[in-house]
Amino acid sequence: MNFSSIQIKNIVTTASLLTLFAVTGAALVGVTFIQTEDDIKYNEKLTLLRKLNNIIPAESYDNDLLLDSIIIKPSRLLSTKEESLAYRARKNSQNVAVVFSSIAPGGYNGSIHLLVGVKTDGTLSGVRVVKHRETPGLGDVVESSRSNWILGFNDKSLSKPNDKGWKVKRDGGIFDQFTGATITPRAVVNAVHNALLYFEKNQQMLFSVNTDQTEAKTKIETIADTEADTEIDNSKQP
Amino acid sequence: MTDDTLKQSSNQTNKQTKTISQNGLWTNNVALVQLLGLCPLLAVTGTIINGLGLGIATLITLVLSNSIVSLIRPWLKSEIRIPIFVLIIASIVTTIELSMNAWFHELYLVLGIFIPLIVTNCSIIARAEAFASKNNLFDSALDGFMMGLGFTLVLVVLGGMRELIGFGTLFANAQLMFGPVGETMTITISENYPGFLLAVLPPGAFIGLGLLIALKNIIDKRQSAQQTVVIQDAEPAAS
Question: ipTM of the assembly?
Answer without folding.
Answer: 0.74
